[in-house]
């Protein structure tokens, strides 16, 4: 099942990964029981999944209309908590020169005001060094507290693609790093194109992900290489915090970021960044100069 945020309303997505897609309003299909607000859908995720499993295929087609990608927003647009993770792929740890995390990778946030849908124009902060970081993003469907790893996938609503866009000067300026601020300029957390439930994925623990600038590939890896895979990562997080329905977790980026290149390379006005995750879909960001 695929669920999208179409202009703030929850919709089912119909159609293949690359073809033309159609949408069907969850509120219309459910006769007002679920949606249109996506937060309400995540709050009732268990009941929503049970009901959705009983739907006949025709129930969606009766309500279907062409999906306009330009209207898509982040699949969970107003989570109560957003977690992001650094240093979660060995080759990315190596390129940054940090030590390999043992108990838990560094955890920070990306503020919700940085969220956008899958296709967007991003303003580059004046004098900044903006870097790319493609990431698997997971969305919580059921509360997790002190969970064991095997309890994690069944409690997730699904996965989506994300970019942890990062302005490196403000991220590392001052006596202590400012990951949350450096990674939260407007538009720095594009996500989408939709949420895919884990049962739809060929192998939920091993998905290819990557990104390219103006067609030139700069990152390519597999989530099977995560140092703390999704079940382990969320289990460990849940031993400190309570993970709530609708919460968004950026799971870390693989090697290939611009900051670690020789010479360093950052996003420039006029460039386009395409990101993808196998079985999920694509993001497209174009960059313009700030004033
Ligand atoms: N997301 C992620 O992996 N981030 C970093 O480690 C970083 O900012 O380099």
Automatic annotation (TrEMBL):
Keywords from the UniProt entry: Lyase, Metal-binding
Domain named Fumarylacetoacetase-like C-terminal: residues: 82-287
Domain of life: Bacteria
Enzyme class name: lyase
Alphabetized InterPro entries for the sequence: FAH, Fumarylacetoacetase-like_C, Fumarylacetoacetase_C_sf
GO biological process, one term: small molecule metabolic process
Pfam family, one: FAA_hydrolase
GO molecular function list: metal ion binding; ureidoglycolate lyase activity
EC number: 4.3.2.3
Similarity-based family: Belongs to the FAH family.
Descriptive protein name: Ureidoglycolate lyase
